[in-house]
Amino acid sequence: RPRYEEIVRMYKCGSNGCQNAYGTLNHLNKHVTKEGHGAKRTRQGTFFLVSFY
User: Fold this and answer.
1) How many Cα atoms are found within 13 Å in the side-chain-facing hemisphere of 53?
2) Which of 16, 51, 52, 49 is nearest to 31 (CA)?
3) Quick one: pLDDT at residue 34?
4) Cβ distance 34 to 48 under 8 Å?
5) 17: left (phi over 0), alpha (psi -120 to 50) or beta
6) Strands of 5-53, DSSP E
7) What region holds the C2H2-type domain (predicted)?
8) Other Cβ atoms closer than 10 A to 10
9) Tell me: the pLDDT tens digits for 37-48?
10) Distance CA 49, CA 18 (A)
11) Measured on CA atoms in the order 17, 42, 48, 5, is the torsion positive or negative?
């Protein structure tokens, strides 16, 4: 299991200035649903490269 600082966070929320980013699309969709940031994201059009370690 990767450590917190080792996770490559490729999926960024970006809704209304939200800066949260996640390593999996599933985790991003959980955030989007919980916070009410619109419709669930799909693989097309949601891949944002945040950073490399």
Assistant:
1) 10
2) 16
3) 96
4) no
5) left
6) 11-12, 21-22
7) 13-37
8) 18
9) 988 888 775 555
10) 15
11) positive
